[in-house]
Amino acid sequence: MRFHRILATAGTVLALASVSACGSLPSAGSPQEAADFLTSTLACESIDLATPREVQQVQAMGLTGINGGGECSDPVGSDGDVDFLTIEDMEAFQTSIKQGKGEEDDLMIGDDFAVDPGSDDQRSRLLKAGLLFLNCSPGFQAPPGKTADEGEVDGCIVTDYLGDRD
Length: 166
Known about the structure:
Layout: H1 4-8, H2 10-13, H3 31-42, E1 46-49, H4 52-60, E2 66-73, E3 82-87, H5 90-99, E4 108-109, E5 113-116, H6 120-128, E6 132-135, E7 148-150, E8 157-159
Antiparallel strand pairs: 1-2, 2-3, 3-5, 4-5, 4-6, 6-8, 7-8
């Protein structure tokens, strides 16, 4: 299992979120369905699902509301593997994220899962597949013409705007 990157970058993982208010976001329902979504979108060479112990380790780092995850190995546009989490309690999850201090400006979300892409090509493919970015930076406003929907926690925005990369 190579789910270690999500454990090693817990600060980044804490920036992931899911927004059920955005009805158009893709939904996974389970870690395997999230893996299937990533395989079809990014052409993962293989998927390693997180063990219950690995999920517990992420939860112990302060991330609540998750129930699974894994890693997409050697995807298209690979600048590294792509980690993902599945979320069972959106309010608890976003609350833990809002309290975190990770860099979230390039993490992407679906309705019930979150993805940490490794390259601009992967971000582009995931955007086309319907995922959006979460931004909880104080005072963030997406520019005109970009999507900007309220998250489930005050101060978080779900957007198709990636800041200075856009």
